[in-house]
Design a protein that fits this description.
Blueprint lengths: L1 H20 L8 E8 L3 H5 L6 H5 L2 E6 L4 E6 L4 E8 L1 E9 L2 E2 L3 E9 L5 E9 L5 E2 L11 E3 L3 E2 L11 H5 L2 H18 L2 H32 L7
Parallel strand pairs: 1-10
Antiparallel strand pairs: 1-4, 2-3, 2-5, 5-6, 5-7, 6-11, 7-8, 8-9
């Protein structure tokens, strides 16, 4: 019984030794991906960036494909690291306070060195138009993949200032100005001429009414009568 236990122990040690000696296939290995969000330095020096709420979690990075999904926080300066990342193609989306970043494509590859070994290779490119390669290898902290800012969120929009020119272009204001101008022009005429004009207007209206009233009986007389049997 003791001999069997020794045999099992020897077999287990042999398997462990073989596992340490035999190379692991490249497709089953993982790498560590290092990145950096290019946060503007004036923002990092601004007092608002030192608020307690901002220090809870400055930002986050989502890295995913059809098989894997990684979510990691960023440091205050925008740096982050994704550990144990398998080989493959990923989509990266980053968030950091008021800043927006482009969608990044991350290709985790490996290349043969010629002596039966292989080394990892990471390619990062912005997935927006135009597609361009990003700086940094992403394989170590000294050369992280640098992700630039594409836009800035405007959570506060200042109130529109009053503009005199746009106010004068309003139809209501134009009508008001025309009415005031006409009233001002009426005051420029002498009062006697205005009264004479009003008197002539009233006389013309009376003549028109008399003409209409005298024409109505004549029209009624000229109307043919209905013939009754």
């Amino acid at each position: 019984m003791l001999r069997k236990a020794h045999l099992w122990l020897a077999a287990a040690l042999l398997l462990l030794a073989l596992g340490a000696v035999l190379p692991v296939p490249a497709a089953e290995e993982t790498v560590t991906f290092h990145g950096l969000l290019l946060i503007p330095q004036p923002y990092l020096r601004h007092p608002d960036s030192f608020e307690a709420l901002n220090n809870v979690q400055p930002g986050s990075v989502l890295l995913y494909n059809g098989r894997h999904r990684f979510v990691v926080p960023t440091a205050r300066d925008g740096s982050f690291s994704v550990y144990k990342l398998p080989y493959g193609t990923y989509i990266l989306q980053a968030e950091y306070h008021y800043f927006a970043f482009p969608t990044v494509r991350v290709d985790v590859l490996y290349r043969d060195t010629g002596d039966g070994r292989h080394e990892p290779l990471i390619r990062t490119s912005s997935n927006d138009y135009p597609v361009r390669q990003l700086e940094g290898t992403g394989l170590d902290e000294e050369s992280p993949a640098m992700i630039p800012i594409s836009a800035q969120h405007m959570y506060y929009i200042p109130r529109q200032q009053m503009d005199i020119v746009s106010l004068l272009k309003s139809p209501m204001v134009i009508m008001l100005l025309i009415s005031a101008s006409l009233m001002g022009l009426m005051k420029l005429f002498p009062e006697e001429e205005i009264r004479e004009s009003q008197k002539m207007t009233r006389e013309w209206q009376k003549k028109l009414m008399r003409t209409v009233s005298t024409n109505q009986p004549a029209a009624a007389a000229a109307k043919p009568r209905a013939i009754t049997k």
